[in-house]
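The material for today's practical consists of a large collection of protein records. An example says more than a description, so a record of this kind follows:
***
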Amino acid sequence: MQFVLIEPNIAENYAILRLNRPRELNALNLQLMQELRAGLQLLDADDNIRCIIITGNERAFAAGADIKQMQERTAIDMLKIDQFSTWDAIRKTKKPIIAAVSGFALGGGCELAMLCDMVIASETAMFGQPEIKLGVMPGAGGTQRLTRAVGKALAMEMVLTGRFIDANKAYQFGLINKIVPVEYYLQEAITLAKEIAQLSPLAIRLAKESVNKAFDATLNEGLEFERKNFYMLFASQDQKEGMAAFVEKRTAHFEGK
């Protein structure tokens, strides 16, 4: 791959997908997004990988979409390209994804961070949806996920003015999980990934599905979905191992079976 680097750690069951267009501040062109989709699908199918980290570099997670690539396109061009099918495929990744964000996470970069399940940010992280300044609006979930994350008032302000928020405000409003010094943001994401990777892959997968269900179901529908997933896990060896380890006061060894 040219614009996405895959860095697996088989021994500790996690992998890093690193966005790699540093001169363009990791702007999300079509090729990068297709490579990211392919990388996630590859890792999602690999039983040796239990958690995935998406990151950029210290200067930028991703500073938005590649405007030069879109500038002259018509509405019909955009419809035919169907770039959001790639985003839909990424959203269906079964394994947990952690965004490790430093510097700019703007436009599509902010939307990509919100597409992940958790976000670790450096003190320099800046989040924003500045599309309005280009005469357009967010199209990869910015109006929907941002509103669910931070509430209507702040989402409206960010989307309608294009203003950025810093890591402290993002944390205050629940957009991110944790802020750390810039030199530690990736290591903190790795620490979280390793903690998740030690647990039952089956339980992690079904728990992720259940949390996500809360965003598109009524409470009763969500509870029913949760209960079915809960019952299903009692058919797994991981459940037997986890409960036996608890009773025997030892560390559980989960195999995803």
User: Anything to note?
Assistant: The longest helix spans residues 30-44. The first strand starts at residue 4 and ends at 9.
